[in-house]
Design goal:
Aminoglycoside 3'-phosphotransferase, Chain: A, domain 2, 9 strands, Phosphorylase Kinase, domain 1, 306 residues, two-stranded antiparallel sheet
Length: 306
Amino acid sequence: MAENRHPSRRALQWVAETVKPGVRIKSVELLTGATSSVLHRIELEDNGRSLKLVLRQFNNREWLAEEPDLARHEAASLQKVCQADVPTPELVAVDETGEHCGVPTIVMTELAGRVELKPGDLDGWLHQLAEAILPIHSLEVGTFPWQYQPYNDLAQLEPPTWSSVPDLWARAIEIVQGPRPATPECFIHRDYHPVNVLWQNNQVSGIIDWPNACRGVGSFDVTWCRLNLIQLHGVAAADRFLNAYHSLAGPSFTHHPYWDLMGMIELLPGPPEVYPPWLHFGMRHLNKKLMCQRNDEYLASVMDRF
């Protein structure tokens, strides 16, 4: 449950003092599209110069109960990804425990651009989505403390009642409960999908939303983006995205369909919902029936590869 959608006066004072003593907060604007935290654009003024920052407050109690280190996690992720050759927000300040802001809080620079879900050139858009994540996967993973784990308990999975292909789901669950394919680790976003990519002048201008980044396999970022793409644009779009990533990554990259199933099991028990930001960013034709249909079609296409 999320509460306190407006930052407190104390939090804003901490932001201003952390950036530079004496700066003035000119405006505070709620940013729409966030689902598990609250985002505000804060414009500060320093001797006539304007500075725009983004304030993220982790006020979802359930999420914090599971991951109390969210602010520290995102701060570490932002410090890591600044080494990559792709625009990402820069860390300005972190209140790990909420001592100053009431809840764990991150302050970061704002990236130019906007979310684009209805591109005029779908293939070009998919190609750039694939290209943008490659520099992240090329980062040295090192001893980054957070490790990929599925959100669902694999031992407790059952075929969903909403699906028209429960037998396929049963087989898919057997596969993910078995051994994982041997795949080298790298640094991954863990929540890579089109709402977390910004565009300006038909070019990717940045990747945002880093509290889930971790050590994992690059295929999971590919998988998670594919899962979002099938719901937004259908199975063919997801396959074209995978082909684009393959062509850009080169022959050293192999995508095992096991990872597509690992993405799909995070839908369970379901039924799959229409992600609210998709509606906000113009995909108003989406509905639950279409989500179920597209996910079943996708599962069938993935299982054909085993």
